[in-house]
Amino acid sequence: MDVDVDPRPDKPLLQLRGISKHFTGVRALNRVDLDVRAGELHVLFGENGAGKSTLINVVSGTFPPDEGTFHFDGEEISHLTPQRARAIGISPVFQEFSLVPSLTVEENLFLGREITSSGVLRARQMRKRAQALIDELGFDLDPSRRVDDLSRAHQQMAEIAKALLGKVRLLILDEPTASLTERETGRLFELIARLKSQNVGLIYVSHRMREIRALADRVTVLRDGRHIRTLDAATSTDGELVELMTGRKIDLLFPTIAHKPDKVMVDVENLTLADGSVRDVNLYARTGEITGIAGLVGCGKSELIRAIYGIEPATSGVIRIDGAPYEFPAPRRSLKRGIAYFPANRIAEGLALSRPIRENASMTVLDLPAFARFGVLRQAAERARIADIMAQLQLRPPNIERAAGALSGGNRQKVMLGRALTRELTVFLFDEPSVGIDVGAKLEVYEFMKRLVEAGAAVIVVSSELPEVLALSNRLYVMHHGRIAAELTGAEKTEQNVLSSFFRDHLTAEVA
Amino acid sequence: MSDLELSVMAGDTDRAKPLLGRWLWNAVLPAALVALLLGFAAFDHGVLSPANLLNIAQQTSYLALFAMAQTVVILTRGFDLALGPTVSMVSVGTALAMAGATATGHDTSLVLFAGLGAGFGLGIACGLFNGVVIALLGVNPFVATLGSYNIAIGIATTLSSGRPVQGVPKLFSQIFYGGSIFGVPAAIAITVAIGIALHLVLSRTVFGRSLYIIGTNPRAAAVAGLPVKRILVATYVLCSALAALGAIMMTARTGSGEPNLGGALSLQAIAGAVVGGTSLAGGRGGVGTAVLGALFITILSNGMNLTRIDGYVQMVVLGAIVIVGVLLDRLRMERSQ
To answer: The ABC transporter domain covers which part of the protein (chain A) (predicted)?
Structure first.
C-alpha cells in the first residue's frame, strides 16, 4: 500500500454537508454532516436503520446523494462513482463482501485493475504484489486459494487486503471485526494504528463499545437518518453514547399498569436457535404481567420471541405453553394455542399493504368458523366484527375498506393490534411495538397492553427503547450476545443496571 | 416526530388522486379493444360480420380459460410456462384413453368418462408436480415450469409418437364442441360458467382471499399463519386443472389428440393475463382481467389473420405485447407508490 501524505492537514480530508438520500418512501439520510480528518479514526454509531450504511455508501460512491455537498481533500466532488472513489483514494470494506467467490484471493485483489502488458495478464507480478501486501498486513492468508474455500474470517481479511491495494487516503470499515478472532482483531488494530500514523483517515462502523473505546478519536451518532451529535471519544461516556443512539429520554407518560403475576404461561428452557442468535436461554412469562426483554440490536431478543411463535428454527431446548410442551412451533399452531406475535417490521411481515384494512385485520382468523364456514368467507360477519374492533381501537379514519398501505404508522399498528381482538389469545409477543409510530399512537399501544395484562394475558415486550421496557415491564430480562445477561425486578430495574449488562464484556458473560 | 406525522398525513390525501387514475387505467383496455376492432374493420369489413364476432367469442373462450389459469398462479407471484405443453399432454392422453376404451369395447359413457378421467388426471398430476417443486422444494416458478414444459412436451410426443391421436368419439366432440346451451355454443357456455365459479372462489372463499394476501406479501401471510405452501400447491393444481379443461374442449374441436395443440398457448395465456392487468408482482388481477386480456389477444390475432399478416410477424407482435404489458404494469405500480 502506498500512502500519500496529506498536504493540508488543517482541513478535513472528507467534508460532507447536508447530505440527504431518499429511497422509495424512506428518508435514509436527512441533511447529515460529517468531517473526517486525515489520520483520524471516526466512528459512526447508531442503531440498524440509522443511516450508517447509506452514509458509507454515499462516501464510497455507490449511492449518489439527493442533496448536499461533498468535499474530498478540499475539492468539491460531484457524480462520484465507486471507480472514481477508488481512484481518488476512498476505499470501502463492506460487511457484504464484494469478492467473487469462484476466483482466487489474488484474482479478487486485482479484479478490474489487473496488471497487464498489451492485454495479457501478468500473473507472476500480481502474485508477488498480492503476497507482499498480505505479508505486510500480517494476515495468515494464501493468495492462491479460491474465495469460496475460505472461512468468513479469511474472506474478511481478503476484503481488507483488497481495500488496501493501491493508493488509500480514506479507509471505510463496516463492522470489520464481526467475524475475526481475537488475534486477527489485534492484527487489524495494529494495522489501523499504522494507517493512522501514515495520515490515512478512517471511517469505522461498530456497535462494540470496547472497540470504540480502543480506537476512536471522534464519534458521530446517527439516528433515523439524522446527524445527532459528533463527540470527542475521550470525553464521552458509554451511557451518553447509548442514550444518543437509542433516542431522547421520552418525557411521555407511561400508563401505570397493575401487574398481578399469576401462573407461568410461557416457559423457555435452554433454548438455542439454529443461527446461533439465541444460545441456551431460560425465560418465563406469567399471566397478568408484562415481561420485558431489553438488549442492543443483534443481541437475539427478537429472535427469541420469534422462535416461540415459530418463525425462527430452534435446534435445542424446550418451550412450554401453559405447562404443556410445545413442539415444532409454527404460526398457525401458535395462534391455535393462543399465542400472537406482532412483528417489528410491519411492512415486511405484518401487512399486505395494497389489501383493505378489513382483510389485514382478519388474516389470522380465517380458520375460525365465525369468519369462514367450509372454506367460504362470511363476509357480512367479517365486516361487522372488524368494523367494531377498529372502532374500539379508534382507527382514524374509521373506513375499514381502505388499503392498509394508505395508513400512517400508528394506524398500521392498530390494524395489527386488531388481530389481537379477533380471537381468543392468552400470550402476546410484541416485537418493538412502538417503532415508527408517533407519540399519540404509542400511548394507545401502551394502554392496549395495559388492558391485555389487566385482563389476565401474558405479555412479552421486546424493545430497544430502554425507557419503554423499563416502564412497561414487571420483570425485565437483559440480553447480550444471544444470552440472558440479567433478570431485573423491582428496584433493580434501573437504566443503570440495564446499561451495565449491555456492556459487560461478553467473555465474562460466557463464564457467568 | 411531527414532520413524520405530517409526511404520513400528506400521503393519506395523495391516495385520492390515483383513484381517478385507476379508473382511467381500467378504461384504457376496453377502449383499445374497440379501437382495435374498428381499426381492423377499416381494412376488412368482414371483421365486424356476425359470423366473425361469434368466431371471436368462441376463440376467446378457450384463451380466456387459459388466461384465467395463468392469472391464478400469477396472483401468487408465480408463473406457469408449462401451460401449453400441459394442454398438449392432456389432449393426447384424453384421446388415447378414449381410443383405448373404445377398442376394448366399452360403452360410450364409459369411454367419455375414461377420457375425462385421463385428461383431468394428467392435468392435476402436472399441477401437483409444479406445485410441489415450487412451493415445497422452493424452486423458482420460472425455472420449475420451464423444466416441466419440456417434460410435458416429451410425454405428449412420446405417447402419441408425434402424430395426431385418432379415435375420439363423435359424441365427445358433439358435447364439448358442437353442443349448445340455450343456443350458446358449448365452449362459450363452459367458459362463462367457469369464469363465474372462479370469480366466486377468488372473492368469496378463504382460498381466494389467501391467494391475494400471499401474492401481496408472502412473508406477512406466513407470519399470520396462512398455510402458504399448501395453498400454493393447490393453486398450481387449479391452474393445470383449468388448462386440462381447456385442452379437453380444444380436443373436442379438432376431433383428435394433438401433440402440438398447446404450442403457443403458454405465451398467449401469459399475454392475456398480463395485458388484462394482472400484475406479475402478485396480488392484483382476477377473472375480469383474464377475460379482457384474452379478448384483446384474440381480436388482435383474428384481425391479423383476416388482414393476412404473416404468422411469424404475429409471433413478434405477441412477444412484444407481453413485454409492453409488463412495462405498463411496472408503470402502474410506480404511480401507485
So the answer is: 14-249, 263-506
